[in-house]
Amino acid sequence: MTGRATPVTILPRTRAQWRTGGLYALAALALLFIPGAAAAAQAGGQHLGERLQIWWAIPFAGILLSIALFPLFAPHWWHRNFPVVSLFWALLFAVPFIIAHRGQAVTEIAHIYMADYIPFIILLWALYSVSSGILVKGTLHGTPRENVIILICGTLLASWIGTTGASMVMIRPLLRAVMWRRRKTHIVVFFIFLVSNIGGALTPLGDPPLFLGFLHHVPFFWTLHLLPDMVFLAVPLLTLFYFIDRRLYARETREQPVEQVGKLGVRGWQNFLFLAAIVGAVLMSGMWKPGYVSVAGVHLQIAGIVRDALLVVIGLVSFKTTSDAIHKSNQFTWFPIKEVAILFAGIFMTIIPALAILKAGEHGALAGLIALAHKPENYFWLTGGLSSFLDNAPTYLTFFNTALGAFFPNTPEPEAVARLIELHGHYLHAISCGAVFMGANTYIGNAPNFMVKSIAEEAGVEMPSFFGYMFKYSIPILMPLFVIMTFLFFR
Predict the structure, then answer these.
(1) Highest mean pLDDT out of 31-45, 327-341, 363-377, 427-441
(2) Tell me: the pLDDT tens digits for 277-312?
(3) Is the pLDDT of residue 129 over 60?
(4) I need a labelling partner for 386 at 20 to 30 A (CA). Which of 33, 135, 321, 427 fits?
(5) What secondary structure, in 3-state letters, does the chain show?
(6) Percent of the chain with pLDDT over 90
(7) Separation of CA 204 from chain center
């Protein structure tokens, strides 16, 4: 390579150079955190959330903006480099955090990954693996009537096998049915609204926030109280979808493919048994109380460890007993779950300060926000608004505990929950609805949203950007319904 002039570049041009440049940028940005980190290390005798300032959440905002903007402005670069971006923001937070809080920081990081992230990903992986082995075949033409039926079935199914399970079972037959159509983005968006979020409201199996409530002594069937709210949202959304889809269907210039013939049928029936086994494992972990075990300083429920082990076994057995032909027909790849796992690894790391500050309540940097929670409608919007961008499960738990502390301070939790339901049940009602329903506001509001988006894009559907989804769909369609719901149910 002698005799060739070396080009002078300002920006790195190879992947290795990009990574090197990213590390230098990481080091430079981390220097901005270290003075504040050193000051934080001087503070003692306070809860972590009371000591953290709001600027600790900058990496969290950074990873959210990266997810929002890079796919819009640099889609090909993002597709290749999103693991590096996730790692960048995670380290940008973790390095100064460990410098500032040392052992406590390591414990917090270990806790969120071992107690929250790993079980979260294992459950998603198991549901993804098992549901990918169910193939719905037959005469599906992607007509408005058929699409509405699929959305109704998915919405009803979501409360019993989870929004993730229902999304993975129903999205592929829906995509196959509409693949011949030119205009199909709106179909996937309404699927996210209904199947990936709103449909999970009726049981603790439907959505993680409700399962956390079940673990904290909310009766299993109490969530059936959310049926009127679910119907209030689902009926107008299904109606609106039908008229939008009928109008766009009438404009189609393509012809339906002739090969879509045959009776409607299902292959991979054994995977319904595996889905039932997943439901049983989750229920077992909530009802069986064998105690705790300490792993690297983190107290983990033995029942949770057993549940996660069972889920791994169920997922592996399902995958091995499902024929390659079914996976091929479902256009199965591991990329959607891989993308979710990598991006949420960064999100779970950088979300630590936001959750700690929220848990500090009136003693934290968001005390003004927490102080607004004194009426059911406040709980609905605060829980829902934060659940749109934070993990909706810990957000639910934060405001759940806020309500318990406001009405029944220093009361044992089982008694406090029972009295909250009896005397102030509309507060728990508002918290539950906000956490479950407003997860539909963004792609990151609920894990199935991102998985459905990824599967749809792999199938060739042009999905809106992060902000495009919000400003074109969720804000104009969902927000008016949430406002009306506030007046009908929470005032």
Answers:
(1) 427-441
(2) 988 898 888 788 888 898 877 888 899 899 999 999
(3) yes
(4) 33
(5) CCCCCCCCCCCCCCHHHHHHHHHHHHHHHHHHHHHHHHHHHHCCCCCHHHHCCHHHHHHHHHHHHHHHHHHHHCHHHHHHHHHHHHHHHHHHHHHHHHHHHHHHHHHHHHHHHHHHHHHHHHHHHHHHHHHCCCEEECCCCCCHHHHHHHHHHHHHHHHHHHHHHHHHHHHHHHHHHHCCCCCCHHHHHHHHHHCCCHHHHCCCCCCHHHHHHHHCCCCHHHHHHHHHHHHHHHHHHHHHHHHHHHHHHHCCCCCCCCCCCCCCEEECCHHHHHHHHHHHHHHHHHHCCCCEEEECCEEEEHHHHHHHHHHHHHHHHHHHHCCHHHHHHCCCCCHHHHHHHHHHHHHHHHCHHHHHHHHCHHHCCCHHHHHCCCCHHHHHHHHHHHHCCCCHHHHHHHHHHHHHHHHCCCCCHHHHHHHHHHHHHHHHHHHHHHHHHHHHHCCCCCHHHHHHHHHHHHCCCCCCCHHHHHHHHHHHHHHHHHHHHHHHHCC
(6) 37
(7) 15
Q: Which residue has the tokens 């080009």?
A: 7
Distance CA 112, CA 394 (A): 11
Summarize pLDDT for 48-75 with one digit per residue, the tens: 878 888 899 899 889 888 887 887 788 8
